[in-house]
Design brief:
Length: 192
């Protein structure tokens, strides 16, 4: 896995015909997240809560080409096995095209750098070339911006009585973004 040199990586990707893909993970809690909203003066909006955390974990990846987004709902903790399952079963089939590798840009989560992950990427280098973002620079990861979309459109200021309701709202929003990439393209403009 190499360090990320954005201009050099973009140039190499263009020469090779590779697809640049950013990957990240996010957790969405059933507990409401409050965000500024409009309300009549003196009528502060109230959002009920059950006090339950029930966190939904999502792996996500977005390509800069056409703002193509894919995701996987994760039942377990984020770990190297679940990460590699996402890469192998979702990310590579979605973005890899014959003779056009995926340039995968990832952050420094511990399971990204586990020996098992490194071994898997070394074995599959024909399909995926990995680049590490510098530590503590989430603003360099395009997928971080994508997480704002479901929060704004599905979870902020909303009550979910059951975890299934939260999942349904998330999946509906993610699937909408997949069918209408123009809605998330503006979030990625600074990366092009």
């Amino acid at each position: 896995m190499g360090a990320l040199y954005v201009s050099e990586s973009k140039k190499n990707a263009k020469t090779e015909g590779a697809v640049i893909v950013f990957e990240d993970e996010a957790s969405f809690q059933q507990t409401p997240t409050l965000r500024a909203t409009w309300a009549r003066v003196g009528c502060q909006p109230q959002i009920p809560t059950r006090g339950e955390r029930h966190t939904q974990k999502i792996f996500g990846a977005v390509s800069l080409n056409h703002a193509h987004f894919t995701y996987l709902h994760q039942q377990e903790y984020f770990q190297w096995e679940t990460y590699l399952a996402f890469v192998d079963q979702v990310l590579v089939p979605t973005f890899y095209r014959r003779n056009h590798r995926v340039y995968l840009i990832q952050d420094n989560a511990s399971y990204h750098k586990k020996q098992e992950s490194c071994d898997w990427f070394a074995k599959h280098r024909r399909y995926v070339q990995v680049f590490q973002l510098p530590p503590y620079w989430p603003e360099l990861n395009a997928t971080e911006r994508i997480w704002k979309y479901p929060r704004q459109h599905a979870t902020h200021n909303r009550f979910f009585a059951k975890p299934e309701h939260l999942c349904a709202a998330l999946f509906r929003t993610f699937d909408h973004a997949r069918r209408h990439p123009e809605e998330i393209a503006s979030l990625l403009q600074s990366f092009n």
